[in-house]
User: Fold this.
Amino acid sequence: MLAEIWESRILSNGGPFHHRFTEALCRYLGVEHITLVANATLGLMLSVRSLELQGEVITTPFSFVATGHSLLWGGVTPVFVDIDPVSLNIDASLIERAITPQTSAIMGVHCYGRPCEVDTINSIAQKHGLKVIYDAAHTFGVRHGQESLLSQGDLSVISFHATKVFNTFEGGAIVSRSAESKLRLDRLINYGIEDELTVGSLGFNAKMSEFNAALGLLQLQHVDSYISKRQQVDLRYREALADTPGIDFVHPNGKQPENYYAFPILVGPEYSLGRDGLYDKLRKAGIFSRKYFFPVLSDFPMYQSLPSANPKLLPVAHSVASRVLCLPMHPDLSAEDQDRIISVIRNV
Assistant:
């Protein structure tokens, strides 16, 4: 493939591999309109720009910083509402009371790949004339009923970062609901250029390179196998840790997302070391877990002054953030390495 890219003399700017990868992704995911981007953060920023959002956007504090940052970069104000204690997604029952005349959209996050209450969110958005963007970074291949979860909302943004179930080292995509929306995004990723003489909108450089697109085509051949291997890692963790006092699973058996992106646990008071103690113990053993997501977005300096960032308004998010820990999860995690991780956790 590298030789083919070099022979074509097209390294970026929508070359042959860009188009082949786009078409292959549409087929695999079961969606019609995809715009490839250099990374999902740029995808979120472009989504805000494409929908011409203004004022305030309601979102979750329990996410990676890209969620909130994309809103600030777009010139809109995040309004945080608390999360559901089971799904860890934005609590849809709290959204409506956060709506003001300045609200232009809702940005939900499918945390760890588990779907938001999309039907409720979409209903609220329709009732109040709001746009909906889903930060779908974790949701490659996840379904909602008979459809791709990525088909929900006005736009959904998926990540192809190296840590994700499906990756192109760096990359991402925006899923649109119409050809018109895709055309607008396709122009925005290339500075807003419409033709050699016309720049019709304020875009920037967010294009995916031919190398990343070619890598994506290769990865698509193996992604089903990767997901199957992740499932085996998930099951092994569950069986081995099921009776460990103070260790609770975020996704109970049978209710985890379909792609096994992460294996988050909640460390309770019954576990003598506590969450931070377990994190340190694993790290000393050369095992790198993640406090994912801690701190919550609303605790970072650029958000702390927002009225919605008041910790008293976000008790569930703060409680979960203080207890959550994501254990190592990848398709090539050997049984021996996983047993070592389990042993460190159990031997308190």
